[in-house]
Amino acid sequence: MANILEVKNLSIDFKTYAGDVHAIRDVSFELKKGETLAIVGESGSGKSVTVRSIMGLLASNAQVKGGTVKYHGDDLLKKPEKEMNQIRGNEISMIFQDPMTSLDPTMPIGKQVAEPLLIHKAMNKEDAMKRALTVLDLVGIPNAKERMKDYPHQFSGGQRQRIVIAIAIVDYPQVLIADEPTTALDVTVQAQIIDLMKELQRKIETSIIFITHDLGVVAGIADRVAVMYAGKIIEYGLVDEIFYQPKHPYTWGLLNSMPTLDTAGKLEAIPGTPPDLLDPPKGDAFAPRNPYALQIDTEEMPPFFEVSKTHYAATWLLHPDAPQVEPPAAIKTLMAKYDEVAPQKVGQTDGKG
Amino acid sequence: MTKYLIKRICYLVLTLFIVASVTFFMMKLMPGTPYTNQEKLSADQLRIMNEQYGLNKPILEQYWIYIVGLLHGDFGTSFQFNNQPVLGLIMSRLAPSLQIGAQAMILGSGLGILLGAVAAIRKNTWVDGVATFFSILGISIPNFVLAVLLQFFLAFKLQMFPIALWDGFSSSILPTLALAVAPLANTARFMRTEMVDVLSSDYIELAKAKGNSRWQTVAKHALRNSMIPVVTIIGPMAVNLMTGSLVVENIFSIPGIGEQFVKSIMTNDYPTIMGLTIFYSFLLMVIILVVDILYGIIDPRIRLSEKGAN
Amino acid sequence: MSDTKITAGSFKPLKVDNHEEQEKISAPSLTFTQDAIRRLKQNKVAVISLFVLLAIILATFLAPVIAPQSPNTQNVAYANLPPKIGNGHLPGFKGTATVSGVTVDKYQQAGVPKGKSFILGTDYLGRDLLSRILYGTRLSLLIGILATLVDLLIGIPYGIISGWKGGRTDTFMQRIIEIISSIPNLIVVVLMMLILRPGLLSIVLAIGFTGWITMARLIRAQTFQLKEQEFVLAARTLGETPTRIAWKHLIPNLSSTIIIQTMFTIPSAIFFEAFLSFIGIGIPAPSASLGTLLSDGQKAFRFLPYQMWYPAAVLCLIMVAVNLLADGLRDAFDPKS
Amino acid sequence: MEKDKPKVLVSVKHLKQYFNPGKKSEVKAIDDISFEIYEGETFGLVGESGSGKSTTGRSIIRLYNPTSGEILFDGQDISKIKNHSRQMKEFRKEIQMIFQDPYASLNPRMKVKDIIAEGLHIHKLVKTEAECDARVNELLDLVGLNKDHATRYPHEFSGGQRQRIGIARALAVKPKFIIADEPISALDVSIQAQVVNLLKDIQAQQNLTYLFIAHDLSMVKYISDRIAVMHNGQIMELASADDIYDRPLHPYTQSLLSAVPQPDPKLERKQRRVAYDASIEANNEGRQLREVAPAHFVYATEAEVPGYQAALAKMTQATTIAQ
Amino acid sequence: ACGSSGSKEASTDTVTFTTSDVISTMDSALNTNVIGAQALTDTMEGLYRYEGKTVKPAIATKVVKPTNNGLTYTIPLRKDAKWSNGKALTASDFVYAWQRVVNPKVGSQYAYIYEGIKNATDITAGKKAVDTLGIEAKDAHTLVITLDKSIPYFSQLMTSSTFFPVYKAAVEKAGKAYGTNSKTLVFNGPYKLSNWNGPDSSWTEVKNTNYWNAKDVKVKNLKYQVVKDASTALNLFQSNKVDRTAISGDTAKQMKNDPDYSTLPKSATFYMQLNQDKNPIFKNAKIRQAISMTINRKELVSQVLGDGSKPIASVTPKDMSFDPTTKKDFTSELSTEGTKNATYNPKEATKLWKEGLAELGQTGKTFDYTMVGDDTDTSKKQSEYLQNTLEKYLPGLKVTLANVPFKTRLTRSDSGDFDMVVSAWSADFPDPITFLDLFVTGGDNNNGHWSNTEYDAQIKASKTTNANNPTARWQNLLKAQDIMNTESGVIPLYQSGVAYLTNANVKGLDYGPSGSYNNVSLYLKK
Ligand SMILES: Nc1ncnc2c1ncn2[C@@H]1O[C@H](COP(=O)(O)OP(=O)(O)OP(=O)(O)O)[C@@H](O)[C@H]1O
Ligand SMILES: Nc1ncnc2c1ncn2[C@@H]1O[C@H](COP(=O)(O)OP(=O)(O)OP(=O)(O)O)[C@@H](O)[C@H]1O
Ligand SMILES: [Mg+2]
Ligand SMILES: [Mg+2]
């Protein structure tokens, strides 16, 4: 399987009055053709900054401190603005979180959907509109033909998000980046949108980076998962590995704090709050909230330990010298499920790649 | 839409009626009479004149007559210009003011929008600094000072334009410039603020993500959206400009309505004052109505919500 | 990743449950205002403007001390003397004027004793221009401040009530605003002048009559938003009365709007007074305001340009400073920036 | 539920809340709903956006004046007390609200201490400044915040901490009943649990009754004793939390449940979404909340009841077999 | 002539003036201001016309001496006089015009100057029918005018626009609109207004070929431009855009040495009235004298006004009226006892002030007085100057200024809402009585209510017993003026003048005692 996108050792700072915010600290991952990579993590962990750097849409006070973003072998970070314009919206598209604000309120939606075609495909207006109509039909806007002339505020939230998706896929991009595309939506609508994205992925064979903080959504859509915490990826693996063989205490905490439909008794919350990225702790940023923290966590950042060929986790607990710890009970139940699932999962991934 | 227009026009008429009434009674409060002069009028003359102007009637009846007259498009006759109908007076003075005002408006707001947009796009660069500096300077110089400087340097010294007097387009250039600076500066500042906001909005991000270059993004998406609030200040500004600027009219000896207005105030020419006030209000409200319709054209959200409401 | 630093002790569980520590907030506690001040301080232009303004205000309020003479002392023999400093060596302050191509020493012509000079020259009645500018600026600033007071006292309550009540009350109050703003300002001024006599009070009342409308509109729009904010709802569920909600919750959150709008009210009042002076219904003589000085200066511009330049310069300086400060404040009060 | 005769604390009867009544822009945000909340329980309210959940909460706490219907609190009809009356003031002490947005629900210009103490002052619950400070500290402690946080401003806190400040403010007046309008939906997953735990703890400690509004169904199920499912200003189904989840009868409830994403890839792969066809509501004649099984209500016509009962029986059977 | 750049043919025949305001009406019965009067003098003509300071026959063929004890004038009219539409001008045009002025329905504010013409006062008062006015067309070219009492200045009066004829058909056709635009007008003067509409700010008068004396009219077009701003006027003049413009204030002062600069004294004076009703201290002559003496009139006109105004010691101006026998100027025959009160003498002033106050038992009191004046630039400057000088020399006096619009000033003067007021009067006709008549007891314009029985008696005698005796009448007037001066009943300030810049090519400017130019004599030096 070819890697379409490779992010290597990416570090990004933001200059602010209080000092530099180290928003991304040495992040690496890759995206294969046709797969869906989910990035999870709580607010401020650097998910958006990561994908914006791929799009070349970082805020003006951002500074790339190091690393590369290779797309088909070219470093996107070094591309001049002009060439980036050629790639954006054409080969790599993006869907934003809030469907209510990401459409231009003063432009009919047909035109907005057709816009990337006019920019990139040198199509005439009529053809572009025709194609836009096809795509709007595809994403399930009822009466698309008549509604092309309508304005965003005349659509419901779910419909708007479909339009945003239509804009993103109208050029059949190779990479589709979706930054929390369903967070602002109702569960029912969210389910529809996710189904839609899965279906589209099958049709246009695009690779997707899907950002969310909802593990439920991840379970539904992802092939692989990267868990971020405080500007770093702390665990990275196939979806089943992350859900049924989690290794990092933060991943445990995340899985644990969500009630499932049969959770009873007290929820296992992760205590405390995430660290301040202005001055990230020296060692493991999660250590202060980690009940399994080791002495070394306060001194040195843990490296990635390989769990399997596809599964890595950055926690000292995986160090051979580390004491064996008991994951929380709920996690153990999950782990028990792994064996039943694993073969099936591997097969599936193969089939896709 | 028609329903909406009818509703708005009803409001307009109601407001005009109130304005007319308020001004009428305010005029009655003013001390002195229009024919106070050093000359002596006989008691009989006074009585006859009062009768002719209807000033001998009880105030309420005078009021009634005035309002009925208004309904027939009769604004009364001027005291200052004996027997000159007020409406004719206003009309004959309006053209130059309207011309200069409209020119200043178009020039000022057009350039202002441009300047503001450029400043916003180049936020925090020297371009922004220069644009901000000039727009603040523009607001800071009284227009009469500006008018004097323009006249002295451009017209008198360099002989590039007529010094004064109202004679064709060329004589409208300097007054237009003098008047345009303030709206230019104001729109530029407003536009900049708004544009900065718009440029940081999600749909601009999406536009960039579509592969629009910076200028394409601005032209296709940012400009129109930033114009929405700018339109609101353009309304009152237009009224102020079109109803004439006494000062500029004075300096350039333009027979405009601003000058006429002050003159009628100074001479207690009540019918003219009232006529002008009502006319001014009328203009104001028409411009606001136009602006609101414009608003709807620029911003479809408003257009539709009104359609919906009717 | 070398293991050299790793010792056996490194893998001891960290037993101290120090997440409490995490809850401590490390940044210094800044009030909202302090935060705004911090942001303002970063804006050099705004800070300079602030100091320029303070300097001007100080100078004008110290006018009785620092003005070379009383602003109304006439000496018509010394009328229209150009600026001169000391012995007149400074260019632009030589005390000379060019009359039909010949440079003449105006001071000599007027028989001014040696050593006596007027830094910014004199006006048509031989009054010291510097003193008049100092006093004039003071009066103009006073007008600005008084107009602001009216603005605050009418505009804010009006806007809050209109926005808070909404519905019919709001529609009614908005109609009133519409009507008031469609009465030409000049009429109001003249009426006030006739009823109240020309003077400071009339001018301030006239400016105040319509001046508060922008403030009221802004406040109303903001109140509409604020009253739906959850913290206001919270106060209501606690049983807070509307008046106290206005004081405790609305006004503090409207403060940035208020400050910024005030920053625009002051210069526009000063400007309006200048305009009134131009058409001859400004501050009555012999008091000077920047407006009266400017309109006198404008008339004499051809021959005595300094009589316009200096008041214009002061007015521009104040305007530029206030505007830059207002810009700075707006940014400072905007947490987004 | 073990108690045989739970005391009714809040009773909503035929409540209607219309906005802009009589105008073209009329919105029937709540259209004739009735339910009861028992003392000490947590009553969950779920439904999609715009279904009228917040409006229900706000009508009960009298932020709106109900269009019609009755709201009995502790046996007293509160839907018609005059604003600013003494009765209203009394009532304001009994019910409190926790809001959704941790950023908008705290006045950014007030110190935490003043925010929490506001209710104390309004209802004169403290006499001296010292007493006030003591009470504020006590409350801060209760919600797990530090004493020295009292002098800080809201923007210095994280979302979870702010939400706790909001809770402390509500608790300050010692209410009996708390309406929590999506108190956790704006929070991070890791923080949500903290707040939910806190709410649960406090409930146990102070014998509070909750109306818990949310759209996150797993959390509602976890926290609630009974749940009402709302749609278009109506209650579609009302039953105990377990019944709603295990034996959802109304198609809307079923659809809603099928859409909940499970943090379990295996389950997710099996999950089939059920689309809801709103056309069954089209003919609204005779439709009302009917008890199809003990304490299990469904919005249905008389004729549909047997059908629902049959379905319920089948489901019960299925679960028993599974067990 | 119009400008160095003026290469266009037509412009060589045009003289352009700036003027301070628009024409408010061209109806000679209604006009009250000097702008309208000038336009009327240019375009219409009455019985006589001023040429220089002498009254010359115009529509009349000669300047007629009265008969019947000064009560009857039989005036022959020229037969070649025509209206601009070519129709003949007859005596009945005068009759119609005059009857219109006194007709109360027309509401002429100037009807009062018909006083003395038979029945005029009664007609304006509505007591008699219009056709009883003492004017009669004996035949088409003879006018008989009958007076109630003799009017010594009758001939001068006839040059005034209020006595001009009007074209009856035009008036009747236009009705109320008569005089509001050039289409309603028919002219009989040297020029015709062309294309003038009500409030136009510029107007052109073209030569009237039907004027009986058209051959003497040398300039084809007169153009008037309203220019209100002094520096604009100067700029226009210096760029040769206008040929003659009035300048004021600092501009005037600065242009004093320019070769194009000239001044023109007007038959108008500025004076101060003290409100005796409101402030009894003003009843004391010493107080009034003190106030008068503090004013340095020379400094006032040269330093503050600088526009050609002249100091004056009486309310009657210089160079307006002359002794019928000695031909000496009225003001030169006044007694020094009176005029010394109008001489700057601050020491004496302070002394008198204190004495006056002592007499009144008001020593040491402070007086806070409002001085009302016009709101023109010049008036403001002079008010400031007066304020300063009064406060400086009269201890305890504090003066507050109220510079208000003209009509407001009049209203306040009328209603006594002032302590001091600076007023101005411009001669209706060149005779001292036009000024002196103002200040008789109960006079409409005697706003200070200064009253002196001897003064009243002198004025009365001049109008009655001595009306037909020019010398005795002259003495009455001189006496009256002397009384006012010694009493300082009204405090004269200055005779107003206007400074002009005039293109050197413009010649033959002829400013008459009535306050208008006789533009028949105007010509351009080629
Ligand atoms: N323009 C900026 N200036 C300063 N700091 C920034 C900027 N943009 C992002 N950051 C900081 O970078 C960090 C990562 O932000 P990012 O938006 O990637 O978070 P996220 O994981 O997407 O969170 P969320 O779930 O809330 O969207 C945050 O601490 C944020 O405060
Ligand atoms: N003040 C109001 N004026 C008019 N309509 C309103 C008002 N408040 C709410 N509504 C309307 O009432 C309906 C119910 O709104 P409500 O806020 O109760 O929904 P909700 O279930 O809380 O939704 P969400 O999950 O989005 O919070 C919506 O259609 C809403 O638009
Ligand atoms: Mg994000
Ligand atoms: Mg809600």
From TrEMBL, chain A:
ABC transporter domain: residues covered: 5-255
PROSITE patterns (alphabetical): ABC_TRANSPORTER_1 (PS00211), ABC_TRANSPORTER_2 (PS50893)
Subcellular location: Cell membrane
Cellular component terms per the entry's GO annotation: plasma membrane
Main location: membrane
Membrane topology according to the record: Peripheral membrane protein
UniProt key word Oxidoreductase: no
Listed GO biological process terms: peptide transport
Keyword Cell membrane in annotation: yes
Pfam families, alphabetized: ABC_tran, oligo_HPY
Record keywords, A-Z: ATP-binding, Cell membrane, Membrane, Nucleotide-binding, Transport
Signal peptide (residue range): none
Molecular function via GO: ATP binding; ATP hydrolysis activity
InterPro entries for the chain: AAA+_ATPase, ABC_Ni/Peptide_Import, ABC_transporter-like_ATP-bd, ABC_transporter-like_CS, Oligopep_ABC_C, P-loop_NTPase
Family designation: Belongs to the ABC transporter superfamily.
Entry protein name: Oligopeptide ABC transporter (ATP-binding protein)
Lineage of producing organism: Bacteria, Bacillati, Bacillota, Bacilli, Lactobacillales
From TrEMBL, chain B:
CDD domains: TM_PBP2
Limits of the ABC transmembrane type-1 domain: 94-295
GO CC entries: plasma membrane
BP terms from Gene Ontology: transmembrane transport
Keywords: Cell membrane, Membrane, Transmembrane, Transmembrane helix, Transport
Protein name: Oligopeptide ABC transporter (Permease)
Annotated membrane topology: Multi-pass membrane protein
Superkingdom of origin organism: Bacteria
Chief location category: membrane
InterPro entries xref list: BPD_transp_1_N (IPR045621), MetI-like (IPR000515), MetI-like_sf (IPR035906)
Membrane-spanning intervals of the chain: 9-27, 100-121, 133-156, 168-185, 230-252, 272-298
SUPFAM superfamilies (alphabetical): MetI-like (SSF161098)
Gene coding for it: oppB
UniProt family annotation: Belongs to the binding-protein-dependent transport system permease family.
From TrEMBL, chain C:
PROSITE patterns to which the protein is assigned, alphabetical: ABC_TM1
Membrane-crossing residue ranges in chain numbering: 45-67, 139-164, 176-195, 201-219, 269-288, 308-326
Domain of life: Bacteria
Annotated Gene Ontology cellular component terms: plasma membrane
Entries under SUPFAM superfamilies matching the protein: MetI-like
Topology within the bilayer: Multi-pass membrane protein
Domain ABC transmembrane type-1: 137-326
Family: Belongs to the binding-protein-dependent transport system permease family. OppBC subfamily.
Protein name: Oligopeptide ABC transporter (Permease)
Automatic annotation (TrEMBL), chain D:
InterPro entries recorded: AAA+_ATPase (IPR003593), ABC_transp_ATP-bind (IPR050319), ABC_transporter-like_ATP-bd (IPR003439), ABC_transporter-like_CS (IPR017871), Oligopep_ABC_C (IPR013563), P-loop_NTPase (IPR027417)
Transmembrane spans: none
Top-rank taxon: Bacteria
Boundaries of every ABC transporter domain copy: 10-257
Keyword ATP-binding: yes
UniProt entry keywords in alphabetical sequence: ATP-binding, Nucleotide-binding, Peptide transport, Protein transport, Transport
Keyword field contains Glycosyltransferase: no
PANTHER family: D,D-DIPEPTIDE TRANSPORT ATP-BINDING PROTEIN DDPF-RELATED, TRANSPORT ATP-BINDING PROTEIN
Protein name per Swiss-Prot or TrEMBL: Oligopeptide ABC transporter (ATP-binding protein)
Organism name: Latilactobacillus fuchuensis
Taxonomic lineage: Bacteria, Bacillati, Bacillota, Bacilli, Lactobacillales
